[in-house]
Design a protein that fits this description.
homohexamer, 335 residues, mainly beta, Jelly Rolls, four-stranded antiparallel β-sheet, metal ion binding (chains A, B, C, D, E, F)
Chain lengths: 335, 335, 335, 335, 335, 335
């Protein structure tokens, strides 16, 4: 089983699981009867009325509608919060020590139970803000999936590989890669040992490629290098119950259903999970003298409504040539 | 007594109570002595510096200035709140059961005492957010009026007629009509039996007609069909005291004065209450295949500062022809 | 030989001719040595500095660079002009009579020699304006290709099929389909009999899908239904000379080279020719009463710099249900 | 016969000739049969797709459709041009000498035959530019009307009154008043002696009230003081023929019909002619020291697409108090 | 010792302490070795990626980097808060009584210990909001400085002079002057007796000069009249320890270092403290009739992201001529 | 005599000739009597109503007003044109051969008589377009000056130094430097031998520093490195007449006066000539692999009204390190 991907940031992708050719309706979204008797479902990633460049949605053709589940109930796992007043503010610069991963032999911990919130600002209800979480885990998620009702997850694995099964297909993410799973997309995480990483969550805006200004039409993260999974489904009854977990207003809730939610046979649209390998970042920098500001290493940005001001940027410090003449070697002091 | 209205959404209207012809000053707003010795007062509905399309204000010519009242004191009636953390979040879809209206014989309840907040987000101090309230009442407001210092009320009567007396004149609103009474406008409500309805409140933005894009210059709610009251005043001393109630930062406050606040003899401006009959909505929809998103039924929208993203939309599902070919009859599943 | 297409309006597409797997460089655009010794060439469709939604360019990997040709010389064929003062203005409504197609037995005429300008406004040098042309032809273009240095061609076949060979691959366009070939893209046209159609040319802006406003995330021309050719090349020496024709400032020029310009083995980018079948247009219209303005049938729009004002719109009148109650049957009179 | 007006710049007005009450259809624009058997006609003043603040159109309900006329033919009267290269440029400051008005006894001249172009820039076909004309006349227009297909006329009478009959009603304009008659609106001019004035014509933009910035919600020309005619019609057959004159691409054309075009019984909309009395201008200026730039006397502005840059401004120097301390009395020297 | 200033709001200033000529590197910001062995440090006043008009930063060349201090610890002085729910809301109009200044003989109080928060809205973490503080003091700050990590201070002295020493130089501010010290700039305050004043703090936006609209290119506060200090440094060891105080998330924190932070020998940039004398305000107002809205007296504005809506305006009522005819003398009543 | 400059792109500069201290009025622009009896004159570089970032004007205090001259007359020198249809279009890439400079001994030629237009687009009357000129000269301008009424000159000396005397002061520009002299600024050119260079002229927009996007707050041409002359005047009667030459609508005109126009004793404002040394350009480029588009070398840009699309860019190819790995050495092929 080899994982395949389609390329292109923000493309209008189309994908069918090859086991069901023709599963995607032709020329319309809502036929009276879909091929194979599937259910058509739209997953919206933006207000319906957004202009084209920010209008995001996908159409999923699935075996059973996603609404077929029992009511959600509060769910006590992990250590998530969005109450930023819990801890007193501290103006000192902080570095986080490496978070310890429990041994699987001592305590099984999966991606959900291993979530910890580090810090944040704003709140999901007001559709403005961000949070930083870590995850530590040693076990795969078993008959359960997560989705985020509050915002988008940008996931940065630090140790160990993550195999994501999503409603859009499967995606393997290794250290030095990142992936983004957006609001409302169900996913389950398989791991292969002790695994750790960071999550940057944003509320109210999606990640975009930054406008490049004078850099021109190519450079930094090129849109071609973003990879999107291909349709994959399982038609699986789960007698013991499948648990759908929702992060909603900063808290977890769980609902039971008796089938796998990864039953999407075909889909099309521009609202999908995606991944990116950081080695493909085309680094731009000073080639005569002086340093550039670190914004020059921006991979993805979630814009605020003030021009030029981001809600959050994801920035890397990639390997590169340093060739500035007569320039202080470390970057400048900065406040 | 027949109620009259002027038409035109957002027009610069002019109106005089016919009992006082010439009450409106000609060619200026602030004459040294106004006709009939009235007091000129500007009611601002936006920052002074807003560009024309969002700049809102009206000039009221009244018998006594509206500032002539005793200090405001906290006022314990109704069940309003804007503390959204009072109730735990719940990700399940909710439908509200019909709210029970008390019998007038058991307990007199007017529009103010019968207010209940259902839910909301954001807060009025930050000028960003919304709330949903219900009102249930069986009695008219007697020698008291309300105004909202926090935002605008879009009022949807569900059962029973509402006769609004406002500083701008009188307005009768029946089920299948809606009305909007904006920040700072005083009004009193007469009812004619058991009465119930919804209120959508927005902070920091006024309702607008949506831009129509390809729909063109006509369609959905046409601006011509919005009706505005004509000037009406009473010059009435209220020996026992008239109570002016203010909703301020989500709470009620009351001040006493000894005259009716509905003493505006003439006014002009583009900041007024208005009503609309939902039957006049020109419905647009798919006429070949597939469903359109429900945004196509938007009557009024309160814009956020993100293009295409509303703070709140008021959307209806009007009677219409459904003629799409080869299309699933109920609208699509949607998340 | 079956023609294949990729779908998605404005996508970042990638394509390799299957005869040369791996022809597309991985992870960069300009390797020191490209696979198969190809030449990398960027074709820009916008200023380098445009923001993402309007930034257009593609990378072509070809056997010989496109600059390998002799100088351009004036070329007298067809009947193109952009001197709008040649004909006196006429305020009457005009309908064009069908243009006669010469018999192939009498006079061979290909796509270039059969071009006639009907009307226009503005001029290509100022990057603002449009022109309408017709083409009538009865023969395929032989060892010659055309490209437009002035703007984009939206081509509407009226009679006869057109097989386009472009630098991006092959595209068959039949009546009831349209295609767009943008500034700088070389193409050659094969026909299969008497052929006629219209061309809408725009200078200074590309065609876009209109923003939909309240119509929502789906409707009118859906982005998924636009088709883009897949890479196809020929490595062909042309002893007798291959003629590259350029439309430049409204006139034709020709240059000779000794190989086919359709030597692009692989390409990627978001600046490509594309086609669309008009049957896939999801028609939206009035479903209660009254007519909507014809802008509701807009397929593609080329925007001016005034919000809501197009340089040119391409609008169709598709088959649809007409269900408005109590409404005058033909559309309204309109000035 | 007393002329009446409605007030409010850019309002959605409604008007019926009182001889035909109920002529305006209720709740829709296009009934199957209009009241009194009238014809519904939309007159568009902007692209259908403009956003609300710039979307302009009116609905006219008339006895016969306006398209019932014979073809237009070139028409040689007046001295209009838009060929700005006819005269050599001259960088010196110019003042125009008063234009002589011929005596009616010598030569009858009406508003159309007395038109002379002074200067201009840009051109109507490109929807960008302006022209300045004068008119001198001594006779009323008899059984003929004019409309401008190129842009809007802002008319400034200098000597003599002008009585305009338009499709929207009648409007009397005297010196110290101005009026605006926009693209496509038919009008006829009655004069009462020797009459002269200026016309500022703009192509591609309508006049607007300027945004006021810190001046606030009131001041300069107040929207309330703009007056719009009320509906008036004549149902008049013209045996000898009625001449409709069109200014099209800077030239005049004429078409014959056998009835008066002023047959609009009722109308509604926000695209209308209007007038304004310059005495109502609320003058703002320096009240401590120094002079303000003359832009502070702007009555109406036609915006270009560069923020803050007008296509044309109409500016007056009204009577006002000059109270600046320690300031050079005439305004500053300026280049 | 005479204080000197440079002029020009938002200029790219350059300044060297005259004791160290050539301290500013030529042609670059980050030489390998700075003149005099200074340390280059960038102080950012905006996101790196802001467009030019809002991009703010300065380069400081100093004896020791500003990061050389011990960790920050909570610091209990003054009476600052940003918890706006501490006090119940009150819809009545409030005037603050004059705040009493303690006698120096009874209790020494400097600028920091004499800070009191009056009111506010929003919060610094969300980069949106404002606060109003008062300061009362009778002693100079001794071996301690303050900087605001939350936003900008606009300081209005009411009684007594303030001598500011800042990283950019010295600035004397007297009653009838105002000064602005922006986020992150260290300053110390010397006073000369009992001193009192107001502070307007804004989070998330800097103060700007308002766009003037029709007022034109000159008027209100002219950019030329804003004064910026010139570079001044002290190379002073502080054996007993120098205390750097930071206002962070509405609370104070303090860190110790053993040298004066005012060790900046030269600097350049457009992010600086500045002052303005209110007498230089060029007052504009009505010169015919009626009053203008008070926005016409705006000195500085901090913009929100809604066009025309300010986060906070600083407005004055300067001496001026009142010359309106036939107008009520006090300004209009206003709600 | 050493030339001095002030620094800072677009600053609000102030400057007095040191021979007349206090020549600049304090706290106002238009005193009743200026210091030294000078005349105040405003030179506007933009519409009065432009928003702050594009609002340009300077105040000049001079011995005699600049309007004191005789009328302009056509002036036959140089070879300027803006009739782009004079030469047939040519789609081939062109390089211009070096233009020959006549020997001074054979023919005296100054900056004005040595002007030749190469090419262009658009036109000054429409405030949109550009032209490219060369100048060749061997003599200084004697008792004559030039100003451009059509647009701005960006002057690039190729051989020989240019000493500009302007109304704002003196400026020496050598090869590897550029200078910009904007619309309406009078200047005279001294040369020191055979001199040649290019001129880029833009109509309707001024040159700006490009927004840098991810490059951040520093880089490319830094604003600090732009130099502006200091005030310098001569109070010189010219008995034989001083010739003021104006370029107006692409042609030259001349007027006589009897004094030197360089009589500005002091000035302040943000509309000035300026120069820049290209060595100070902080070069940014690829430091890992691939090439960046040449927009990354933009020094100055004149913006069109389409976001990201320039009317004209001034771009250089400065010395820099080329360090990209595995990348084709010359830049990519490009169309």
């Amino acid at each position: 089983f080899i994982l395949q991907y389609m390329s292109g940031f923000g493309n209008e992708h189309v994908s069918e699981d090859p086991r069901c050719p023709g599963a995607l309706p032709e020329g319309q979204n809502n036929p009276q009867v879909c091929p194979y008797g599937l259910y058509a479902e739209q997953l919206s990633g933006s207000a319906f009325t957004c202009p084209r460049p920010t209008n995001k949605r996908s159409w999923l053709y699935r075996i059973l509608p996603s609404v077929c589940h029992k009511p959600f109930k509060p769910f006590e796992e992990g250590h998530l919060t969005h109450n930023w007043d819990e801890v007193e503010p501290d103006p000192n610069q902080l570095r986080w020590k490496p978070f310890e991963i429990p041994k699987a032999s001592q305590k099984k911990m999966d991606f959900v139970s291993g979530l910890h919130t580090l810090c944040g600002a704003g709140e999901p209800r007001g559709r403005n803000g961000l949070a930083v979480h870590v995850f530590v885990c040693n076990a795969s998620m078993l008959d359960r999936c997560l989705y985020n009702s509050d915002g988008d997850f940008l996931i940065v694995p630090q140790q160990g590989k993550l195999l994501f099964t999503t409603e859009f297909g499967k995606m393997l993410v290794e250290p030095n890669e990142i992936c983004v799973i957006q609001q409302g997309m169900r996913f389950s995480v398989e791991v292969f040992g002790e695994t750790r990483g960071y999550i940057l969550e944003v509320y109210g805006a999606h990640f975009e490629l930054p406008d490049l200004g004078p850099i021109g039409a190519n450079g930094l993260a090129n849109p071609r290098d973003f990879l999107v999974p291909v349709a994959w489904y399982e038609d699986r009854q789960v007698a013991g119950g499948y648990t759908v977990i929702s992060k909603y207003q900063g808290k977890l809730f769980a609902a039971q259903q008796d089938f796998s939610p990864f039953n999407v046979v075909a889909w099309h649209g521009n609202y999908t999970p995606y991944k990116y390998h950081l080695e493909k970042f085309m680094v731009i920098n000073s080639v005569a003298f002086d340093h550039a500001d670190p914004s020059i290493f921006t991979v993805l940005t979630a814009k605020s409504t003030r021009p030029g001001v981001a809600l959050a940027d994801f920035v890397i410090f990639p390997p590169r040539w340093g060739v500035a003449n007569n320039t202080f070697r470390p970057p400048y002091y900065h406040r």
